């Protein structure tokens, strides 16, 4: 599938139609093929977002688009291992890591909202430290790629490989949506892709330190996030 459109000149409705058509046509395409389409279609107006749980999508994207922008949200609450993974990705991969930070430091947020907002109102904390910074950081892009997979949790079971992000009015690409954890592990092993050390220490999904725990046997990969709080997403993918 090849696009020759000047996507930077398309309106939201045209982009939505482009995304929905691509989602249908690329449903059975490989992750490299999906990312090559994204690179060819959007060029510099395309980026990858990464939580630095692993660098699989960043690695895949760097092969389709060397020097691709990889956007990372530094919430101020990350594990040291996560920051270390970001630094390693920046050092060894052909990508341009862009670190976004919230408008307030953790100390400034504590002063305004009280300490440990993540315990009292995790939705607001995520909004301030993740959702708003990403919205501002994606302003110059038309399309963004994520590492979402359908097998991660019931809330992600219908993730399209290419879809329309209504909230941000952007094309949202999930090139490994159809992958399983076994597929991820095989790719990591084959290509020596960097992964967060916490994945080898009982964590199946890595987020902010105060809101992430190790998973128990039989739990899905997202069970360790906001455990016991009835919350499954931070708002980036709602």
Percent helix, as a range, is 25-40%
**Shape from CA axes?**
globular
Alpha-carbon distance between the termini? 28 Å
| Side-by-side strand order of the widest sheet | 3-2-1-4-6-5
What's the mean pLDDT score? 91
* Secondary structure category: alpha/beta
Protein name: Adenosine 5'-phosphosulfate reductase
Pfam families: PAPS_reduct
Main location: cytoplasm
Catalytic activity: [thioredoxin]-disulfide + sulfite + AMP + 2 H(+) = adenosine 5'-phosphosulfate + [thioredoxin]-dithiol
Task: Describe the protein's architecture and organization.
- The active site is at residue 234.
- Pathway: Sulfur metabolism; hydrogen sulfide biosynthesis; sulfite from sulfate.
- Its cofactor is [4Fe-4S] cluster.
- Its EC number is 1.8.4.10.
- [4Fe-4S] cluster binds at residues 125-126, 208, 211.
- This protein is α/β, with parallel strands linked by helices and 238 residues long.
- The chain has helices at 12-25, 31-42, 56-64, 80-92, 106-113, 117-120, 122-137, 181-191, and strands at 46-49, 68-73, 95-100, 143-145, 162-165, 170-173.
- Strands 3-2-1-4-6-5 form a six-stranded mixed sheet, sandwiched between helices.
- Helix 2 crosses helix 3.
- The longest helix has 16 residues, at 122-137.
- The two termini are 28 Å apart.
- The model is unreliable at 1-5 (pLDDT under 50).
């Amino acid at each position: 599938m090849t696009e020759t459109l000047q996507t930077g000149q398309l309106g939201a409705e045209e982009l939505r139609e482009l995304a929905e058509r691509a989602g249908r046509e690329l449903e059975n395409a490989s992750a490299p093929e999906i990312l090559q389409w994204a690179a060819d279609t959007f060029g510099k107006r395309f980026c990858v977002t990464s939580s630095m749980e692993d660098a699989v999508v960043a690695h895949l994207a760097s092969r389709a688009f060397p020097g691709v922008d990889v956007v990372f949200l530094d919430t101020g609450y990350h594990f040291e291992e996560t920051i270390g993974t970001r630094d390693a990705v920046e050092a060894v991969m052909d990508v341009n890591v862009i670190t976004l930070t919230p408008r307030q430091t953790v100390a400034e947020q504590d002063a305004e909202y009280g300490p440990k907002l993540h315990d009292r109102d995790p939705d607001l904390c995520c909004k301030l430290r993740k959702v708003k910074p990403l919205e501002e950081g994606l302003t110059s892009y038309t399309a963004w790629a994520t590492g979402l997979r359908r097998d991660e949790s019931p809330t992600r079971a219908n993730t399209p490989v290419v879809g329309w992000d209504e909230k941000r009015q952007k094309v949202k690409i999930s090139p490994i949506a159809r992958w399983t954890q076994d597929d991820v592990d095989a790719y990591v092993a084959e290509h020596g892709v960097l992964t967060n050390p916490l994945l080898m220490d009982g964590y199946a999904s890595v987020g902010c330190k105060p809101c992430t725990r190790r998973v128990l046997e039989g739990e899905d990969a997202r069970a360790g996030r906001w455990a016991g709080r009835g919350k499954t997403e931070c708002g980036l993918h709602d």
